[in-house]
Amino acid sequence: MAISSRNDLRRRGVLGLLLGAAALPLVGTPAHALTDGEARALIDRVVSDINRIINSGQSERAMYGDFERLFDRYADVPTIARSALGPAARSASRAQLAAFGDAFGAYLARKYGARFREFIGGSIQVTDARQLKNFVEVRSTVDLRGQAPFSVSFMVSDRSGADKFFDIVIEGISLLKTERVEIGSMLERRRGNVDQLIQDLRSA
User: Fold this and answer.
1) Sheet containing 123-132: order of strands
2) Is the dihedral of CA 150, 40, 137, 101 positive or negative?
3) Which residues does 112 contact at the CB level (< 8 Å), separation at least 6?
4) Tens digit of each residue's pLDDT (9 = 90 or more) over 32-90
5) How far apart are CA 136 and CA 157, in angstroms?
6) Nearest to 165 by CA among 44, 64, 69, 42
7) How many CB atoms lie within 10 A of CB 102?
8) Contacts of 46 by beta carbon, 8 Å cutoff, 6+ apart
9) Cβ partners under 8 Å of residue 61, min gap 6
10) Rounded Cα gap, residues 91 and 88, in angstroms
11) In whole angstroms, what is the distance from residue 69 CA to residue 51 CA?
């Protein structure tokens, strides 16, 4: 065998060993799981932005714009939207799902922006985080002048490929469950017409 051929084989052998060694740590390595600290860090940013918005002195219209951007950035709106649409999501076209997601996201920001506007003059503080099944609950406390403190919890997951919250529970009332019931009722009144629902959500 020629010297150059032996060298080529030797190089390929060394490369094979190196590549094999590099791959070994990956075998049996569990997939990354969202930690309490990562979920809390996300909600710390969410709460900071909410506190900034509600105490900014802006007009109601400007606040709603800020809340829409907040939901776009931090919330898993596609997951919330599909949950809210319920069984109709399975038969909706891709274009309908996209249009519904856009309309629903803006509607959600206006609706919960109005709720958060009630906190003007107060503050929200993150208190703790805990693992629940395949997501993390991050709990916070709202302090308002002249009222007893109450709780707001954010449910955080990384199933979308990024750390996002997919539910907010205000005083025990779940955004996800509430919207599933309300959107379901709206769709029923429109005899299951998703396009009509999308159109009406844009002005709701």
Assistant:
1) 123-132, 135-143, 150-157, 164-170, 173-174
2) positive
3) 67, 71, 168, 175
4) 589 999 999 999 999 999 999 988 988 888 888 999 999 999 999 999 999 999 999 99
5) 7
6) 42
7) 15
8) 70, 74, 154, 165
9) none
10) 6
11) 14
Of the candidates 43, 61, 63, the residue with the CA atom closest to the CA atom of residue 53: 63
Tokens of 148: 């007893």
SS3 call for 156 = strand
Segment (H or E) for 46: helix 36-54
CA distance 77 to 80: 5
Q: What is the pTM of this model?
A: 0.78
Angle at 166 between CA 165 and CA 170, to 5 degrees: 85
Check residue 129 and report its DSSP letter: E
**157: which 2 tokens?**
């997951």
Task: Decide: residue 132, CB within 10 A, 0-12 exposed, 13-18 middle, 19+ buried.
Answer: exposed
Residue 140 phi, psi (nearest 5) = -140, 165
